Amino acid sequence: MLKLLIAACMSALAVTDAVAQQSLLERGGYLVNAVMACDGCHTPRGPAGLDMSRRFSGGSQVWDEPEYLVRGSNITPDRETGIGGWTANDMKRLLTEGKRPSGVPVAHQMPYPFYKILTPRDLDAVAAYSLSVPAVRNQVPAPVYRKPAHTELIPGAEKPFSDEMLKDPLKRGFYLGTIAHCMECHSRRPDGRADYVKWNGKGGYVFKTPKGTVTTKNITSHKTAGVGGWTDAELRRALTEGVDRTGKPFGPQMQRQFYFSKMTDQDLDAIVAWVRTIPPAE
Ligand code: HEC
Ligand code: HEC
Fold first, then answer.
1. What does 75-117 look like in DSSP terms, one character per residue?
2. What pLDDT score was predicted for residue 2?
3. What CA–CA distance (Å, rounded) separates 180 from 1?
4. How far apart are CA 200 and CA 194, in angstroms?
5. Is the dihedral of CA 179, 182, 185, 189 positive or negative?
6. Which of 10, 208, 242, 272 is 20 to 30 Å from 261 at the Cα level?
7. 40-98 pLDDT, tens per residue?
8. pLDDT tens column, 139-176
9. Where are the domains positioned within the chain?
């Protein structure tokens, strides 16, 4: 009798565990696929866009900056060319501190400064999900670090939020906008440095690409210089369809609808509400 009871308890525990694990993976999948857009930097691009059959195997995105020359790494569990053997704790340390298990830090092109705000549960979820992808063999050239990079943190986003804080729509919007690293581009000064205080949301940085240049826009609540005059619906459409106020498609940097169109209504509303609170600047 006792044995049976113990067996019943054990299997009930195993079921609860499986459910907890699944919802962790689901939450991680949602954050990665709809908000954090790891694929944009870590999944190889083919002629038809992201090649999901080689998901997370890196190599095709290159950043050649004065401080470093890096490529999106192979973050699949391939033993020789990826991050095979990394534990959830290794991944969590990389995501929030930018340190590999070897101790070698990554360039801040990997947006770890934006991930310090992740709630403990969301950090677990993102680590679990990102470690669950299949291994893909792809040797990515080693990074080159040229000189120390200056890393800034967004005021208020230096440490983990709590689940309780996410119930407040504005805090939730700030949280999502941070992990979607909007300000990586929109608070970059023309000289390339991030400034989340004086340059918060102001735009003005010019991306040079083989196809031409694109200037980051002002997304502060300034009525004319920023998006203060836009309706909520227009802001939402910019995120979910990748078009400006007139319906004209954005350049590649702001073509983020592949991810943001998967966001829940509640989260989209929260991001839009937060954008509206960015102090006006011009
Ligand atoms: C804006 C582009 C960008 C985004 C978004 C991004 N990464 Fe990265 N990541 C990089 C780059 C570039 C590197 C390599 C940096 C280096 O070599 O110094 C990197 C490195 C890493 C590494 C270290 C692997 C190694 O080289 O040892 C891991 C793990 C990682 N990223 C996971 C993720 C996960 C998970 C996400 C999404 C939650 C993510 N990244 C989002 C650009 C990005
Ligand atoms: C990788 C860089 C990058 C990231 C990340 C990014 N943006 Fe943008 N964004 C741009 C660029 C560049 C433009 C200008 C696009 C163009 O003109 O083609 C733009 C344009 C916009 C516009 C249109 C403004 C106008 O006047 O037309 C809005 C609104 C906007 N971004 C909001 C956001 C929000 C909110 C986020 C985060 C959820 C975000 N962006 C993330 C680079 C980025």
1. -S--TTTS-TT--HHHHHHHHHH-B-TTSPBPPTTS-GGGSTT
2. 56
3. 54
4. 9
5. negative
6. 208
7. 999 999 888 899 999 999 999 999 999 999 999 999 999 999 999 999 999 999 999 99
8. 999 999 999 988 999 999 999 999 999 999 999 999 99
9. 24-149, 152-282
Contacts of 188 (CB under 8 A, 6+ apart): 194, 195, 199, 204, 205, 216
Handedness of CA 257, 261, 263, 264 (dihedral sign): positive
d(CA 91, CA 25): 15
Residue nearest to atom 2 of ligand 2 (CA): 185
Q: Is the CB of 72 under 6 A from ligand 1?
A: yes
List the beta bridge partners of residue 254. Answer: none
Domain 24-149 has CATH 1.10.760.10: yes
| 58 phi, psi to nearest 5 deg | 70, -170
Instruction: Give me the helices (H) in 137-222, please.
Output: 169-179, 182-186
Residue with tokens 């067996």: 7
Q: How far is residue 120's CA from residue 126's CA, in Å, rounded to a whole number? A: 10
Residue 209 binned pLDDT confidence (cut-offs 50, 70, 90): confident
Ligand 1 centroid to residue 107 C-alpha, Å: 9
Q: Name which of 11-15, 133-137, 218-222 the model is least confident about.
A: 11-15
Cβ of 280 below 6 Å from ligand 1: no
Task: Give the closest ligand to the alpha carbon of residue 209.
Answer: 2
Strand 68-71 and strand 206-209: the pairing is unpaired
Distant-in-sequence, close-in-space partners of 148: CB < 8 Å, separation ≥ 6: 67
The answer to whether residues 125 and 119 touch, using CB atoms and an 8 Å cutoff, is no
